[in-house]
Structures are given as structure tokens and as C-alpha cells.
Amino acid sequence: MADLTCACGSKAIYTRKHEGNSYCASCFKDQFEKRVKRTIRENGLIGKNEVIVVGLSGGKDSSVSLVLMKKIFGERPDIRIIAVSIDEGIEHYRDKSLEVTKKLTRKLGVDHYIVRFKSNLGSSIDDVMAAKAQGENKNLNSCTFCGVFRRYLLNRAARELGATKVCTGHNMDDEAQAVLINYLKGDLKRLARMGPKPALKSNDKFIPRIKPLRDLPEKEVALYALITKAGNYWGECPYVSGIRFEVRDFLNDVESKHSGTKFSFLRTFDAMLPVLRESASKSGLSEITECENCGEPCSGDVCKACELLDKLDVNIAKQKMLLQELVR
Amino acid sequence: MKLKVAWMNEGKEIETKATTISGILKELKINPEIVLVSVNNEIVPDESEVKENDFVEILKVVSGG
């Protein structure tokens, strides 16, 4: 069999199996960028006079997200792009990826802030896991702790930087996994908050999140990162655990046997979303309240961050936000 | 057919009956959804054929955390 070719006649590097089309590097890159622009346009993710904070971990997804934000909106005088990295304090993992973020933001000429768990919460993930190994907080899941505080600190940092949107690198795989996990857990509240555009009722303290890579599978984001050299850090967190990884493997197993499964799964969810949101709204599930302790936006009386920090005996309401290391 | 394969920071020579990347991934029990593959340092689609002494590099692209 001869080499697979792209429609342009060049040698193909990738086949989008559920469509049956093969692409060379150049046509793949164009197709990828068109899809991101379409996601932004069709969902009205970015308008005029925006300050966009891109959550930048240094991994391929967030790096591609920042590169594309800069490429698409970098020349717009009414749009400012800022990168914010959250340092959870995971030795030999986050320290390496932070070096990648510094190099990338310097190369792109994007203002860059680093927010550290240790300075803002009193404990790094390494501290929490070391304490757990000594028998403290036995039921504390590292991914839950990390996820809650990454979102919390990113939202607070974005607000203090005057952001109108928080842009993340979530791809189609991340979204499909989150939908399935919330189904499995029966979490209607979280399901109703998902979707291509922010759905929560407005609250001045909550900065709406956008996910421009949501319509692209993880494998394609990785390919784009490789061929454009947008991201080249492939490290894996040493603490990964929990249902997400079982769901990830399950979805990839089904996808390898039935191409297009993740795509159709997410499209079906999007089609059902208006009904889901209406139902959640009638039940008061989409309301945003403010945490009784720290005043941050949440969906109950006390936010998840304060609930978790109570276990660690830290009160974030008394602390000033520390935005560290402005890297230019 | 003999091939040189690099996977998870390890390089080894394998003897295989597979003639395509898909076939090699199947033999090595690697899900094609989680990897990108290059042959002789060029990224190729999973359906691509391989030949004797090719250098097949398999990069895991699914992140964790």
C-alpha cells in the first residue's frame, strides 16, 4: 500500500477516522485552527473589550490554548491576554512544567503570573500527601483537593487581574469524561453547569470559563502541539487516581472499536443540555451563592475550598491573595 | 520482520508479523487512541505500513493531572 495522502496531494500524517479523511501537517494545522475559531464563534466565547486569563500548566492542552489565543486575538487592541499558572507544589512534576510555562510566555510576550498553593493555602499537595501517608486526613483524595483549589485560586487570580473570561485547555476527551463521571455520580447540578458556553447565573465574583479546545480530541491537540512545537511537556502527575482514569480508559477503549463515539456522546449531551438546565434552574440548582466563610462564589452555604481547608485548619478568608512572580 | 520500537522511555527490537502501525499497536496491546506514532522520525497515520528495520517511536499523548 502506498503512503496515505492528504486531499492536497502531500503525504498524510493523520487520519480522522470517524470522517475517513487523512491530512498532511499543514492541512491538519489549518483544520485544527478553523475548528477552534468555529467553537469560539458559534458559542460567542469571546466578544469585544475582553481580558482573558489563560490557565497555563505547561502541558500540551493549556500551551496550545495560549498559543491559539495569542494567534487569534493577539493583534486585537481591545483584547488583553494574561497567563496564570497554579503551582500545587509537586516536586519533579510541576517545577518542570513551570519552566515550560516561563519559556512559552516569554516567547509569546504574554504577561505571566504564578500562584502557589503553599503561599496561599499554607500547604502544597506534597505536604498534604505526606501528612496523609502519616495517617492524617485518610479520606482526602489528592485530585479532589487539587482540582478544588486550582479552580478556586485561578478564579480569584483572574478576578484580581480584571479578567472577563478564564480560558482553559479542556479538550473533547476531558469533557466527555466529565459528562460521564457526573452521570455516574448522578450529579445533575454539575451536569447543568457544563456545555460549550458558561451557563451559571451571573455573579460578580465568578469569572466565566471558556474552553475553546472542547471540540477537539486529546490526540489531535497533542498532534497540533507536536507539529507547531506549541507544547512539549509530557509529564504525568505522580498522584493521579480516581474514577476519571477508569472512565478515560473506558471511553478510549470504546472509541478504538467504534470511531466517533466520544464526538457523538458529547454532541448528544449538548443537545440535551437546554432541557437539563431548565430542570436544574426550576430546582434552584444553578444558583450561585457566596460562601459564608470566605465570600467566594459557590453553590451551597460553604464553598468546597473552605470545607477542605477546615480539615487542614487553614482559614482563607483571612488571607490576602498572593500573585507571585510576574514573569515578562 | 524485525523492527526497532521505542515506548515508555524504553527501546527494544521486536520480531513481528504485523505490517501496519495498527497491527503493531495491537500486538503490543497499546490503545491507538492514547498514542501518536512516528516511523523513522516522521509522524504517520495508524494505517501506515512498516518495513524491515524501521524505527517505530510510540509517544503516549494522554495526560494525567
Write up what this structure looks like.
The complex is a heterodimer of chains A (328) and B (65). Chain A has 328 residues and is α/β, with parallel strands linked by helices. Helices cover 48% and strands 12% of the residues of chain A. Chain A contains twelve helices and ten strands. Chain A has helices at residues 25-42, 60-73, 94-108, 117-121, 125-133, 142-160, 172-185, 188-193, 218-228, 243-257, 261-282, 304-312, and strands spanning 14-16, 21-23, 50-55, 79-87, 111-116, 165-167, 209-210, 289-290, 297-298, 324-327. In chain A, the strands form three sheets. Chain A has a six-stranded mixed sheet, sandwiched between helices. Chain A has a two-stranded antiparallel sheet with strand order 1-2. In chain A, strands 8-9 form a two-stranded antiparallel sheet. In chain A, helix 1 packs across helix 9, helix 2 (60-73) packs across helix 9 and helix 7 crosses helix 11. The longest helix of chain A is centred in the last third of the chain and has 22 residues, at 261-282. Chain A starts with 13 loop residues before the first strand and ends with a strand. Chain B is mainly β and 65 residues long. Chain B is 11% helix and 40% strand. Chain B has one helix at 21-27, and strands at 2-7, 10-15, 35-39, 42-44, 55-60. A five-stranded mixed sheet of chain B has the order 2-1-5-3-4, with no helix packed on it. The longest helix of chain B is centred in the middle third of the chain and has 7 residues, at 21-27. The radius of gyration of chain B is 11 Å and the shape is globular.
The largest pleated sheet of chain B is described as: 5 strands, mixed
Strand content of chain A: 5-15%
Placed side by side, the strands forming the largest sheet of chain B appear as 2-1-5-3-4
Oligomer: heterodimer
Strand content of chain B: 35-45%
The pair of chains with the biggest contact is:
A-B, 35 and 20 residues
For the CA atoms, what is the radius of gyration of chain A? 20 Å
Specify the biggest β-sheet of chain A. 6 strands, mixed
SS class of chain A: alpha/beta
Structural class of chain B: mainly beta
